[in-house]
Write a structure and sequence with these properties.
Elements lengths: L4 E2 L22 E6 L5 E9 L3 E6 L10 E7 L2 E17 L2 E13 L1 H12 L13 H7 L2 H13 L15 E10 L2 E14 L4 E12 L5 E4 L3
Antiparallel strand pairs: 1-6, 2-3, 2-5, 3-4, 4-7, 5-6, 6-7, 8-9, 9-10, 10-11
Length: 225
């Protein structure tokens, strides 16, 4: 399909720009919408992220329930997603009306989500494995509350010094990857911390693998795999 142009029809809600929580990759891919009638309607995926996707069809989706089931292929590997419509509009492709939908991701297999997230960030140097996060990148990925939970957990394991005057000790965060565990999306971070050993009069460095939920910010310390 040619690049679509918008008509005067206003969307119900504008698509959001790229956000740090989930990077959106705008690269077309092929797929189908599974209609309730059993019909398979071809579609083009316009972009996708860990939280949703935008699709384009040659005909409107009719009699759809609260959730839509889609099948698509990226890098010759198929996957299935279930999403709910957040907005829609009409665009022109070579002078012909096409129908665009923004979907919020509701369900996808853990392994498929992991693979898609690698695909979405593969050309983004800010999210390559091992990248040390700046304070701005860290704060965009995880909340202050999650950072406090990480510090508390490290302190409980004696991997960090106690706070001084209410200020957290220096902690360095590196990005590892996004991963889904039992339907819950996480950002995997490698956290470098330091604890003073007054007996040996030296400092001990620790590296901890931490999963931070992208939904509610709960954390898990894990062994690397």
């Amino acid at each position: 399909m040619a690049k679509p142009t918008r008509t005067a029809t206003a969307p119900q809600e504008k698509a959001a720009p790229n956000r740090r929580k989930f990077y959106r990759r705008s690269k077309p891919f092929q797929g189908v919408f599974y209609a309730a009638s059993g019909e398979k309607l071809p579609l083009v995926g316009l972009d996708i992220s860990g939280g949703g996707l935008c699709i384009l069809l040659q005909q409107p989706i009719k009699d759809a329930g609260p959730e839509l089931t889609l099948g698509a292929v990226i890098e010759n590997k198929p996957f299935t997603v279930i999403g709910s419509v957040r907005w829609s509009d009409v665009v022109k492709v070579r002078g012909v009306d096409h129908y665009r939908y923004g979907l919020k991701l509701k369900s996808i297999a853990d392994d498929d989500w992991d693979r898609l997230m690698l695909w979405t960030v593969e050309n983004n140097s800010e999210f390559s494995e091992g990248t040390t996060l700046s304070a701005a990148q860290r704060d965009a990925l995880i909340t202050q509350d999650a950072q406090q939970k990480i510090a508390d957990e490290l302190r409980s394991r004696d991997r960090i010094d106690a706070a001084v005057d209410g200020r957290l000790p220096l902690i360095e965060y590196s990005f590892v990857k996004y991963t889904m565990r039992q339907g819950v999306p996480y950002v995997w971070l490698r956290v470098r911390s330091r604890r003073a050993d007054r007996t040996l009069q030296t400092a001990v460095d620790y590296k901890s693998n931490v999963l931070v939920s992208c939904d509610d910010g709960h954390i898990k310390l894990v062994e690397a795999d």
